[in-house]
Amino acid sequence: MFKQDFRIPTGLENQIQYHIQCGPGDVAPVVIVPGDQGRVESIISKLHDPKKVSENRGLITYTGYYEGYPVSVTSTGMGGPSASIVYEELINIGAKILIRIGSVAGLQEEIEEGDIIIPHACVRDDGASQYYVPQNFPAVASPEVYLRLISAAKSLNFDFKTGINWSHSCFYNRDPEYFQRWSRYRVVSMDMEASSLFVVSSLRGVKAGFIGICYANRFKQSNRDKVDLSVPDTNRSIIKSSTSKAIDITLRGIKDLYQNGL
Ligand SMILES: O=P(O)(O)O[C@H]1O[C@H](CO)[C@@H](O)[C@H]1O
Ligand SMILES: O=c1cc[nH]c(=O)[nH]1
Description:
By secondary structure, the protein is of the alpha/beta class. It has a single domain (about 30-260), classed as Rossmann fold (3-Layer(aba) Sandwich), CATH 3.40.50. The protein has 7 helices and 10 strands. It has helices at about 40-45, 80-90, 145-155, 175-185, 195-205, 220, 235-260, and strands at about 30, 50-55, 60-65, 70-75, 95-105, 115-125, 140, 160-165, 190, 205-215. A 5-stranded mixed beta barrel has the order 5-9-8-6-10. A hairpin with a 2-residue loop joins β3 and β4 (about 70-75). α2 runs parallel beside α5 and α3 (about 145-155) packs across α7 (about 235-260). The longest helix is centred in the last third of the chain and has 23 residues, at about 235-260. It is globular, with a radius of gyration of 17 Å. The structure holds 1-O-phosphono-alpha-D-ribofuranose and uracil. 1-O-phosphono-alpha-D-ribofuranose binds near residues 35, 36 and 78. It is an enzyme of class 2 (transferase).
């Protein structure tokens, strides 16, 4: 399994991609990759002239412009196995930078609902990357993308937190220790796709970053004997305004990446 050579083209480069139903020329060099298809609407509302390219299996793609720079948005679905298919297919047709905007759960006491998290690395329990490379291969954001996101957040005067994120695969795990273990290791947040994004992008020779919005705090919800697996109402204004800020940070970061030659 680990003899796969990712320097070799996939052979699928010049065709319509099976799952996302997009082909060469359909997506911009920079693609924003939320898990939730509902977040696509919020992102394209900030683009100029967004055009729907495709929708298949809940994987929706739009391409538009931000301050004159082409940007695409593709939803990936939940979990590493679905998301890694989308990342691979986007790269097959020319994506050079992938940035995930996604919900996360906090894993430290001080991570509040609505906090913006910009992780620099992930623990790899995403359920897909283990089939690409051995477990000791790192899942790290591309420094250029990470630093642009950080400096965009600072220049917009938006608060954010950073650290290591845990990408996991079992949303409804009932064991408090499932969550508490990573809190003790000072991991700040958890999601289900970012480590597969970092690994696939690294193997395919493209760049990647991740910005998260905290929807719940699994540390506080699991620090007694039982786990509270609920997620508070996501229609609250704090979640809406933080999502809007995370999109603004991402778009500002993308503009800076373009202006510095991607
Ligand atoms: O909000 P999205 O991007 O879907 O991300 C998070 O939300 C889903 C779980 O509710 C998982 O996909 C997780 O990673
Ligand atoms: O509770 C949550 C929220 C977002 N992402 C997760 O993995 N869990």
